[in-house]
Structures are given as C-alpha cells and as structure tokens.
Amino acid sequence: MKYSIGVDMGGTNTDLGLVTENGNIVQRRNLPTNAYTQFEPYIKDMMKVVDEMLEAQRTIDGEAVHLDGIGVGAPNGNFYTGCVDNAPNLTMKGVLDFGKEIHKYRDVPVVLSNDANAAAYGEYVYGGAKGMKHFIMFTLGTGVGSGIVVDGKLVHGSTGAAGELGHAILYHHGRKCSCGREGCLETYTSARGIVQTYCELKGIPVSADVTSKMIGELAHQGDPVALKTWATVGDQLGLAMANAVTFSAPEAIFLMGGPAQVGEPLLKPLREAFDKYLLNIFQGSCTIRMSELKANEVAILGAAALIKMKL
C-alpha cells in the first residue's frame, strides 16, 4: 500500500493526514500553527508528527509504510518555488521554504500550492471532478479562493499565483478589500462579506454576533432579510462565475466552503444569475455543482492529491 501525507496549513492550526491511493485518510494529527514564530521548529515538530502517523500505520499494516511524498496546501503557497511567500495571517513571517526544510528529514517529493488550488486538485483526483479535464473550484470562507483546471492540469500561471478569482473586482470603488484594493468579489461573497450585506440590509452595525451560519439558519426559517441577503450573494457570485466561464470554458464549476452549505437559499439565485449572465455560446455547457468531498477532509485530500500531480 502506498501513502501520501496531506498537510493543510492554516493560520491557527495545521492539520495532517496519511492518505491512501484511493483517498482514505487513515491517520490524522494536528499542530498549532500559531504557536510558532520560527519556521525551523515548526517543520521539526511537523516531521515528528509525520513519523508518528507512519509508525502508527506500520503497526496496523505489519510492514513498513511506503511514502510517495508530502503535499502542502497553504496560504500564499507558490507551486514553482515550494515556498509560502509572506502570508499575512501567519505568525511565521517571510519566505517559508517547505521543500528545503522537509528534505532535511525525509528524501521524498514535496509539493506545495495555495489551499484553493489544493482543494481543486483534490476534487479532480478524489471527488466529483474525477474524469473531467476542465473545471473551476470556488471556495467560500474567510476569503474567496479558486482553483482552475484546464486540459487536466492545474493552472499556476507565470508566477505560480494564477487563479485568484476572489480578487477579481466586482464593483468599481466598492468595499475595501484586505488586499488593498476596492470591490473584490471576496468582499461580497466571503463569510465576512455576507455578514456585511445582511447588516446593511437590516440597517444595523456589523457585529461579531452575526455570522453567515446564523444568516443561513434565518433564511431556512423564512426571514426576508436573510433570504434577500443570499439572493444578493447568489447574484454576485453567479456574475463572477459567468465571467470565469468566458476564459476557460469549464465543464463544471464546483463550490465548497462553510457559506455554501446553506444550500438552496444561495444555490437557487446563484444558478439563475449564472444562466442570466452567461455568454450565449456557453449556454448549457457548464453546470454548477457542490463539492463531493467531505468538508472536514477536503483540505487534507487536496494537499495529498498534489503529490499525484508531481508523480
């Protein structure tokens, strides 16, 4: 049995999993990312965790575990360099060279990409995009990420940072974005953007007591402001997806992340807007689908799938 390690590096926690060839996570561990300000101790402790998982699985299998490689999904991850470049939400600052540091402990392939690209490739290898050659993944959460697959290959672009559709400008002189610009899609369709829209429609100040999950629950109870919020978000996201179709002509657009779990209050207006804004030559060629990977597994599976791309 061959295995890969999938590493999901978040600002608060790092989740690790030992993954079989067919996408089963057989061992899982966790590391507190925000407990580290230096990269070397972080990698040292990460590799201790990797060794623990391999030893636990060796005990189960009764033989040595063959490791194909280690895949990492991380914020500001650069596929070409194998580095995380100055991620603002990490306590470890600067350029973090995963390949160089991991190779001090294990001589296996190391592949790194941003978390949305990893999610897209995980869908391609293990999920609903299996067998597809052209699709786009949108991830809704604290921000809005995306991964683009064309001709069966993940699009990285000349810099390794291709696929930042969450930072495509939706409205000229719109909401201020964390990237420093104004009107990015992320400022409207991320969890924070959804909360802001709800509070604006409600005529109340934005509050930490209001969450996108709560707005989803209110929508299912028939709350008119919550329903209007999701209709607005669906229209905005549908426009962005229709625009995305014009440059890569995907077979499908997959959607994942916490806000997407609200279901029909978002999906119905989203599909209606997508059909309304879609260029006529693409009508009927692309469907909007939910990710088929489990929400609590997609990040690890996506990172592990990167190894298959390398191999």
Q: How would you classify the quaternary structure?
A: single chain
Proportion of residues in β-strands: 15-25%
Strand order in the sheet with the most strands = 3-2-1-4-8
Which CATH class of the largest domain is shown?
A: Alpha Beta
| CATH level 4 superfamily of the largest domain | ATPase, nucleotide binding domain
In the CATH hierarchy, what is the architecture of the largest domain at level 2? 2-Layer Sandwich
Major sheet: size, sense and barrel closure? 5 strands, mixed
Termini separation = 16 Å
Protein described:
This protein has 311 residues and is of the alpha/beta class. The protein has two domains: 2-121 and 297-310, ATPase, nucleotide binding domain (Nucleotidyltransferase, domain 5, 2-Layer Sandwich), CATH 3.30.420.40; 131-290, 2-Layer Sandwich (Nucleotidyltransferase, domain 5). It is built from nine helices and 13 strands. The chain has helices at residues 39-61, 98-102, 115-126, 186-189, 191-202, 212-220, 224-248, 264-277, 298-310, and strands spanning 2-9, 14-20, 25-31, 66-74, 77-78, 83-85, 95-97, 110-114, 135-140, 144-150, 153-154, 252-256, 287-290. Strand 10 and strand 11 (153-154) form a beta hairpin. The two termini are 16 Å apart.
Write the layout of secondary structure elements.
Elements (H helix, E strand, L loop, with lengths): L1 E8 L4 E7 L4 E7 L7 H23 L4 E9 L2 E2 L4 E3 L9 E3 H5 L7 E5 H12 L8 E6 L3 E7 L2 E2 L31 H4 L1 H12 L9 H9 L3 H25 L3 E5 L7 H14 L9 E4 L7 H13 L1
Parallel strand pairs: 1-4, 4-8, 9-12, 12-13
Antiparallel strand pairs: 1-2, 2-3, 5-6, 6-7, 9-10, 10-11
Helix pairs in contact: 3-9, 5-7, 6-7, 7-8
